[in-house]
Amino acid sequence: MIIMDRAVKTFDKQKALDDLSFAVKEGCIVGIFGTNGAGKSTALKAIAGLLRLDRGDITIDGKRPGLATRGLVTYLPDTDVWYPWMKLSDAMRYMKDIYWDWDEGKAASLLDFFGLQKQAVMQDASKGTRAKMKLLLALSRQAKYLLLDEPFAGIDPFAREQIAQAIVEDFMDEGQTILVTTHEVLEVETMLDDIMFIHEGKLLLQGHVETLKQERHMSLMDLLKEAHEGARI
Ligand SMILES: Nc1ncnc2c1ncn2[C@@H]1O[C@H](COP(=O)(O)OP(=O)(O)OP(=O)(O)O)[C@@H](O)[C@H]1O
């Protein structure tokens, strides 16, 4: 279980996380929504152990983010982190050397599913192809927790839904948990169990997608719009 407890993170005078608390249980897919600058990436980076909170606490299966959780968590950043001159095969070899849970079979299936070439050079690939390469590298680990920061950015709308579906049906191991930030509400809706809506570093809405929709007789998009409107009043 991932527990974020009253997390505060300030950059200069800007509060990116403002007393943010939530818990994510095992084996579910959680969509994290919010406007630009809401604090979504900061929350994922803090869970991944890439930045330190000013206040508050995070535990992943009872452990603080850091070396102890490296094997538990895989993080797909929203930026390109690989050397541009690298071939996809170089990046795959690097991941295999670093992580004991690298799954060669899964990597081969994903290569085929995305229609990627191992010899393709990162900097020569289109934005969408780079997004697929990054997804392959993140999903080929058997880590228990997958943190995906805007995985569909750059991927065309025709492929997004298909990829979201495949992640759940074909490439997600039993008991794996996914936290995914995205602005593509409609494309990911069917893959999600739970949602969170973050605004100015605060959690404004959290719950099970279908339960929220039934209780309030609203689409997911309208639920998020309502949460956003409420924050502006
Ligand atoms: N390294 C940094 N230095 C300074 N400010 C930062 C840094 N990282 C994030 N911020 C600020 O913290 C706030 C939250 O940023 P964050 O990237 O977490 O938002 P986000 O919800 O992921 O936004 P988006 O949807 O645009 O990706 C923003 O005001 C951003 O400018």
TrEMBL record:
<dbReference type="InterPro" id="IPR051782">
    <property type="entry name" value="ABC_Transporter_VariousFunc"/>
</dbReference>
<dbReference type="Pfam" id="PF00005">
    <property type="entry name" value="ABC_tran"/>
</dbReference>
<feature type="domain" description="ABC transporter">
    <location>
        <begin position="2"/>
        <end position="225"/>
    </location>
</feature>
<dbReference type="GO" id="GO:0005524">
    <property type="term" value="F:ATP binding"/>
</dbReference>
<dbReference type="InterPro" id="IPR003439">
    <property type="entry name" value="ABC_transporter-like_ATP-bd"/>
</dbReference>
<keyword id="KW-0067">ATP-binding</keyword>
<keyword id="KW-0547">Nucleotide-binding</keyword>
<dbReference type="InterPro" id="IPR027417">
    <property type="entry name" value="P-loop_NTPase"/>
</dbReference>
<keyword id="KW-0813">Transport</keyword>
<dbReference type="InterPro" id="IPR003593">
    <property type="entry name" value="AAA+_ATPase"/>
</dbReference>
<protein>
    <submittedName>
        <fullName>ABC transporter ATP-binding protein</fullName>
    </submittedName>
</protein>
